[in-house]
Amino acid sequence: MTGNGTPVGDLSRKQAEPPGDGGRPRVAVVGDILLDRDVDGSVTRLAPDAPVPVVDVSEVRQSPGGAGLAALLCAQRADVVLVAPIADDADGQELRRQLSDVTVVPLRHDGPTRRKTRVRSSGQGLVRLDDGGPGTPLGVNQATAERVRDALTGCDAVLVADYGGGVTQEPLLREVLAESAARVPLVWDPHPRGGEPVPGAALVTPNAAEAERAARQLPLPPAEADTGVPGVADVLRRAWDVRAVSVTAGDRGAFVATRPADDDGSTDDAPGVIRHLPTEPAHGPDPCGAGDRFAATVTDRLARGDEATTAVREGVVAASAWVASGGADGFRRARTAARQPVEQSSPASLEELGARMRAAGGVLVATSGCFDLLHAGHVTMLDAARQLGEHLVVLVNSDRSVRHLKGPERPVVPLADRLRVLESLASVDAAVVMDDDEPSAAVSALRPDIWAKGGDYTWSDLPEASVVRSYGGRVVTLPYLPGRSTTGLFSQVRAAEPLSSSIPSTLRRSS
């Protein structure tokens, strides 16, 4: 169409490697799709016929929203099949064009494409216009359900991105989703106008307002002791008969309620385990889409075998990074930027490297560190930093600098090996040696759009922060993965396997 519902794309694609071995999992996204539009302009006068501002439009950006945005975000790390009603109109054709990296199984769509248009002047929002729809799936029958069932077969996880269009209220589709929930992890991102999560879902992800509203609508509302966010999370888990509920609460992070352990004799109706996962507060001009970033990240982690709490922790990090990087508007700006590949010839300087990457389009992110004995904390931080933009440059302290900062026995791994390991990571576009102990001069030369550091730092710890602000860049601190430390690893290695004094010290440091 595809007005007859013919699939777009190759449903036979399979992952090249098992997800647990670092390959790309296969993820299905089921839900309601929108076309998000940003209209930028300037206001210099009022209309002569009414006291309203006149916006002189300078740029229009558009991209898939709702389940479409969730699918694009999942597709950054997975092979994705998207099941959603898509209108047979010009905007529907634009959605299909922009979803070319995703296998689309379209359903018939009631009415024109749903659109959300945000009008801004000098970055300040003036009005949002919603039109189109209603977007309800039409003509869903047993043949349709079987086609959706086939599309979900072989997936490692399913994300239900409910945007109130009616997909989650269609009985036959709910049957297919319930079957999937019994087979693979199913994440349900709910909407106030949508259907309840299907029983057995691995994780349901309402925000605090959605959770409180859903709890008030239960046949037996929660007791007064359970009206706080943590209590509501567990009340909903039991009422919906799902494995876990994560309630996101803005700067407070997330509260996760999970089922009791299988071996403690409890029933599913028994109070579960509630954990609070704090976050580093993030601030940006456009928080829209943070819920989709969160849901896409937890779905990817569950597809790779993580437990719900671990997946939510990663989702909180990703959502904070999303807001700090400009949200949905920043995402659309990056997608519409010119995308020319960065030349592979070695740049003569940091200035040239920064210029080349900015010319390639998108947001340039940079970070720094010793990265001695690369561990999970490093990788988590680098992955989160890379999600802030299209290019990530890592400034790596030289051996001389590491010795000055960490002591005469460091680095454990010499510079050439540290660079080689960093450059092998998919998240890292370039690793550059930095001989200074702190990166202010290098940052001034590179001029990244975003300077990212682990959350164990504060702004007062970062002398380079003033440099970043001086040219209009942003400083983002990413939540720190606790319990990971190069110094701690080094101490464990030395305690477990003392090195012979006959080995030269230079070899001991590089072993």
TrEMBL record:
<dbReference type="InterPro" id="IPR011611">
    <property type="entry name" value="PfkB_dom"/>
</dbReference>
<keyword id="KW-0808">Transferase</keyword>
<dbReference type="InterPro" id="IPR029056">
    <property type="entry name" value="Ribokinase-like"/>
</dbReference>
<keyword id="KW-0418">Kinase</keyword>
<feature type="region of interest" description="Disordered">
    <location>
        <begin position="1"/>
        <end position="27"/>
    </location>
</feature>
<dbReference type="InterPro" id="IPR004821">
    <property type="entry name" value="Cyt_trans-like"/>
</dbReference>
<keyword id="KW-0511">Multifunctional enzyme</keyword>
<dbReference type="GO" id="GO:0016301">
    <property type="term" value="F:kinase activity"/>
</dbReference>
<dbReference type="Pfam" id="PF01467">
    <property type="entry name" value="CTP_transf_like"/>
</dbReference>
<dbReference type="Pfam" id="PF00294">
    <property type="entry name" value="PfkB"/>
</dbReference>
<protein>
    <submittedName>
        <fullName>RfaE bifunctional protein nucleotidyltransferase chain/domain/rfaE bifunctional protein kinase chain/domain</fullName>
    </submittedName>
</protein>
<feature type="domain" description="Cytidyltransferase-like">
    <location>
        <begin position="367"/>
        <end position="460"/>
    </location>
</feature>
<feature type="region of interest" description="Disordered">
    <location>
        <begin position="108"/>
        <end position="137"/>
    </location>
</feature>
<keyword id="KW-0119">Carbohydrate metabolism</keyword>
<feature type="domain" description="Carbohydrate kinase PfkB">
    <location>
        <begin position="26"/>
        <end position="329"/>
    </location>
</feature>
<dbReference type="InterPro" id="IPR014729">
    <property type="entry name" value="Rossmann-like_a/b/a_fold"/>
</dbReference>
